[in-house]
Amino acid sequence: MTLPRLLTIADAATAGDRLPAIVAEAVRSGARAVVLRARDLPRDTRDRYAAALCRILEPVGGRLILAGPQDGGELHGPGDAVHLATRQPFPTPRPALVGRSCHTADEVARAAAEGCDYVTVSPVYPTLSKPGYGPPLGPAGLAGLAALAGRDRPGPLVYALGGVTPAAVPECLAAGAYGVAVMGPVLRTPRIVLDYLEGLAG
């Protein structure tokens, strides 16, 4: 399964009803994989956002990944793609695409053992959006977790997350990340996707 090297994380609680317009501009700038984070919103609101983002991504062959809801609702997202929180159980039956948030070696090892397609590893750099997860991993910590994920082939793809600026992309790739996952910068300035894609192509 081929995934783009850029994951755009669309946080509905932060963006509110501006979310579809933000994602539309990000997609026009080249984003092709969007993780909809709307776990704490009512099911009907989450479904409304998911439908809107699907309409935006479909014409360009993009993929919407639904961050697994916390309300006991259906884990499978549109297109059968789901992103799991660190401690969420692996869903049965297995969705077509499964990612998981990871912060430690044990969490990466677990995701690899259960057959996740990708993991986000965070926080790589200082960021206000990832409180409570200890000090940033830095490039060296990222390299260690990326190596662990790739120890058994095929292992999950590793996306660097947390404080990743366009300038930091080459450093993340050199540390072994497959790509980067970004939330805040894209929510604030969707066209910054172009800068991330330039770094990922370099």
Automatic annotation (TrEMBL):
Which top-rank group of organisms is this from?
Answer: Bacteria
Has UniProt tagged this entry with the keyword Protein biosynthesis? Answer: no
Keywords, ordered alphabetically:
Thiamine biosynthesis
Ranges that cross the membrane: none
Q: InterPro entries from the entry? A: Aldolase_TIM (IPR013785), ThiamineP_synth_sf (IPR036206), ThiamineP_synth_TenI (IPR022998)
Its pathway? Cofactor biosynthesis; thiamine diphosphate biosynthesis
Q: Which SUPFAM superfamilies match?
A: Thiamin phosphate synthase (SSF51391)
What the entry lists under PANTHER family is as follows: THIAMINE-PHOSPHATE PYROPHOSPHORYLASE (PTHR20857), THIAMINE-PHOSPHATE SYNTHASE (PTHR20857:SF15)
Summarizing the function annotation, the protein's role is:
Condenses 4-methyl-5-(beta-hydroxyethyl)thiazole monophosphate (THZ-P) and 2-methyl-4-amino-5-hydroxymethyl pyrimidine pyrophosphate (HMP-PP) to form thiamine monophosphate (TMP).
Q: Which Gene3D superfamilies match?
A: Aldolase class I (3.20.20.70)
Q: What's a Pfam family in this record? A: TMP-TENI
Q: Where is the Thiamine phosphate synthase/TenI domain?
A: 8-184
Question: Could you tell me what this protein is called?
Answer: Thiamine phosphate synthase
